[in-house]
Amino acid sequence: MFRGLSVYTGNAHPEFANDVAEALGQPLGRADVFKFPNDEIFVQIKENAREHDVFVIQSLSGPGTSDHIMELLIMLDAFRRASAGRITAVMPYFAYGQSDKKDQPRVPITARLLADLVGVAGADRFLTMDLHQGQVQGFFSIPGDELSAFLPLVNYFTDDYAGRDDAVVVVPDLGFAKKGRNFAEKLRLPTAFVEKRRRGNTGETEIVDIVGDIGYRRAIIIDDLINTGGTVLNTVNALKEGGIQDIVVACVHALLMGGAAESLCGSGIRELVVTDTVPLAPGKRSDKIRVLSVAPLFAETIRRIHEGESVGALFTSPTVQLPLRVR
Ligand code: R5P
Fold this sequence. Notes:
Bound molecules: ribose-5-phosphate
CATH architecture of the largest domain: 3-Layer(aba) Sandwich
Number of helices: 9
Largest sheet: 8 strands, mixed
Distance between the termini: 37 Å
């Protein structure tokens, strides 16, 4: 029905887009995406897109979140005007997921605004991974798929942790409680939950309470995202004070802003396990950071969307192998 499958990227995370294209066995489509001296973004698609099934890969992470969003919107508009057959906005990390409700007077719901913009700019579908809250899916008026790094992370930890009687999974943010508990259940481990409180609008947090037993030798701290690292760092310190010596931290979206990578890796943890939905700047790399590449999973999903095959079967069918690469 379409004239072919094409994959393009903006400047947010070209390495990830290249890995997806490689896993699909085809090169990335050529496009100029750059800024004029007046700070405005220019886009030109350099290949015929008419009637193509187009996937635009752009992670909406910072630094440069606003530019990455604008690049994506402008690319979507360019493909719409180039008469693409179908356009999918592939956002491995969807920004503003935490702005998902009016929880203070006179604040916006920016996740909803962004979802609207993606549709209005020209996307017919979206594809993303582990939204901060599942209900953000419903902010889009176009159909889409939300992938999860849940099973790749479970698989990564299974050999060393499944069923151990000296380990606990610690969830440092109650918003991740359900996913965290599912993760622990898959590994047949107990769970403890950290109740935290934000200090005003600074983004800083403090621990109010830990619900659950932390009298273990080892812990896996798991969250959907690490931003400044404050939430996880507070949790690491509390667990160390409680006597846990062996701590591994895992998350899906490693934003690792400012000195977060350095602080976490220097905090005495054994390993920081992240995915590659967000680029890891060279200055943030460390022997302690292990990157699980979800690019092959995105590639397989794109193939399935293009071929009209089930995406859900990737996560529910025991016979389907979840593609994954560990760096
Ligand atoms: C909370 O809503 C999230 O799940 C994370 O716990 C939080 O955003 C992490 O932020 P930071 O690393 O700045 O503490």
